Amino acid sequence: MKSKNYYFIVLILLFFSNCKKEEFQTNGDFFYFKSAEATMPVWVKGNKNSNKFIIMLHGGPEGGSSQYYTIFPSHKKIEEQFAIVYWDQRMCGMSQGNPSMADATLEQFTADLDKLVTLINYKYNSPKIFLMGHSWGGALGTNYLLANQNKITGWIEIDGGHNWTTANAISRDSMIVFANNKIKANDEKQYWQFALNWYTNHPVVGINENAHYSFIGKANGYDYNPQSDSLQIPFTDLLFFSPISTAYFFVPYKFSFLNSGIDLQNQLHKITIPTLICWGKHDKVFPVVIANDTYNKLGTLKADKYMHVFDYSGHSPNYEQPIEFVNEVIKFVKKY
Amino acid sequence: MTKTNKHLFISVLIIFHCLCKLANGQENILPKTKLTFSYFGETITHYGLNMGFEYYLFQSKKYQIILATNMGGYVHIRNNTSLFIREQWGQRVSFNNGIFIDEFIGLGYLHHFTHGGEIYEVLPNGVVVETPNNGSPMIMPSVGLGTGYDFSKKTKRNIIFFLRPELFWKAPFNGYYLTHFVLNTGVIFKI
Question: Please, which residues bridge with residue A41 across strands?
């Protein structure tokens, strides 16, 4: 009886010790920084000797986490060349503490980013810092650069939400066209009629309108090819052997500051640093016309601004077309 | 197996061995108090320990009303280390074949520390300072529904093995109650 008990314990312990967990639990530098009651994790991975650090500004903001981006094959390739700083913003991902919703403003997120930039300069002897913002991260990065671009070497915006309010109006129009086409083709007619009715009742789509994003998802406006195997998510490792916690799934709120909208398009002329704009051609959240307008309105010299439209991507070319994305980012960062 | 895991493995073996020794030869009576010792795995794999005692407010051979006090903690690598002490109220229904089911609700105090790295602050003048990891006080409501086997029903060993999935909450955490799933499994024994 006693030996049976021992075997049972040995089996349990072997199960725990043999699972793959090294990357999430030991790789890179891991630390936190505190700002206005939030305690935010920072994970620095990749080639720190390059002296080029790319700060990843995740999407969301609610439901967003930089740690999600660490599993992207494209990011692993970029890490071979440069360091990437994965930061979970306040009240997002694995961020801790007890900040108030009243402090969750675009200004506070921007102030947090400025502190992170100071901290990276302090810990790594003032390397060249690039910002890479995806979706909401595009809004945060743009707002930061309007006042602090002298601290940053280059800006990479991926399907960014710096003019989210206007983008929603454009997105609404395109979704109405999409829904009408579906109804005409008698393809899931009932669902798209419901969507059309919803848009009729919502002439202005707010940033926190979940229904709008559900319709976009149904229209493959996030992932152009949802069946693609370009991103294989290691669910077991993430759930059981990574820093990811239930906080990632149970965030219960919407960020109320987004209700007043974001539109920074008319201030883009103030940004003059080297910029790479990456955009999915089939993005229905922030349609690709915004990329063209952004390119034209940026104050950066033509020789230092680049735009790449990804033909087979929706909202996330960073995982839908990883090879093309890596090539563009590495070429850009190497140049500056 | 890492060095830490080896130490944990050896410690668990020693403790389990001692518990088996203690339980052997105990009389099959109904003691008012028993000790508990268990693995407390947040999301199953984020390892921790829980220990305490159960006090039986009422008991018969088939039913117990239980007041439990326990303390413990767990480590979620690169996320948090939490230590807690809590009171639980529960009841247990036992069957003749030794199997039982039980349920507990509880309320405790939890102290939450970040895990995995230093904590920095950037002062208004731009100076970076490292700050101590003093942790955060939180309350910890919990519920658990378990099963197990009471060896005293069929053998002379006065020891119970239990397996109890639990939910607990931490608050305040980012302004809300953060839900956690736990596997709490171990032994209950008479001293």
Answer: A32
